[in-house]
Amino acid sequence: MYAIVQCGGHQVKMMPGETLVVDRLGSDKGAEVSFDQVLMVEKDGGELMAGAPFLAGARVVAVVDGTARGPKIRVFKKKRRKGSRRTIGHRSTYTRVTVKEIVL
């Protein structure tokens, strides 16, 4: 059984017992979070349930394991023959979650 969930502008495949990394959530470690924007669910028998765009009443329950930071992204902009250079960068913060169950 798995579910496709929209989380932080991305579509993420979630299966019970799986640990995965999603965009930063504002929850503390050990908190239980619920993803309500479920796009599709496949049951164990192979039956697919798809929403238009979301499945009504379906949600994925997960527990927050902690936060992590991604690699530093460096952006270098230059205009040739002008002496113009600029370097910017950022590091994204991610949240690790463990999926407990898929509720239909």
Structural description of this entry:
This protein is mainly beta. The protein contains no helices and 10 strands. The protein has one domain. Helix content is 0%, strand content 62%. The strands form 3 sheets. A 4-stranded antiparallel β-sheet has the order 2-1-5-6, with no helix packed on it. A 4-stranded antiparallel β-sheet has the order 3-10-7-4, with no helix packed on it. The termini are close together.
Shape: elongated
Strand ordering within the main sheet? 2-1-5-6
Q: Describe the main β-sheet briefly.
A: 4 strands, antiparallel
- Rg from Cα: 19 Å
CA distance, first residue to last residue: 11 Å
**Number of β-strand runs:** 10
Bin the strand percentage.
over 45%
What number of domains? 1
Mean pLDDT over the full residue set: 95
Low-confidence stretches are none
* DSSP summary: helix tally: 0
- The computed structural class is mainly beta
Helix content: under 10%
Order of helices and strands: EEEEEEEEEE
List the helices and strands and how they pair.
Layout: E1 2-7, E2 10-14, E3 19-23, E4 32-35, E5 38-42, E6 48-50, E7 59-69, E8 73-79, E9 84-90, E10 93-103
Antiparallel strand pairs: 1-2, 1-5, 3-10, 4-7, 5-6, 7-10, 8-9
Question: Which characteristics define this entry?
Answer:
mainly beta, 4-stranded antiparallel sheet, about 100 residues, 10 strands, about 60% strand, elongated
Question: Quick gist of this model?
Answer:
With 104 residues, this protein is an all-beta fold. The chain has strands at residues 2-7, 10-14, 19-23, 32-35, 38-42, 48-50, 59-69, 73-79, 84-90, 93-103.
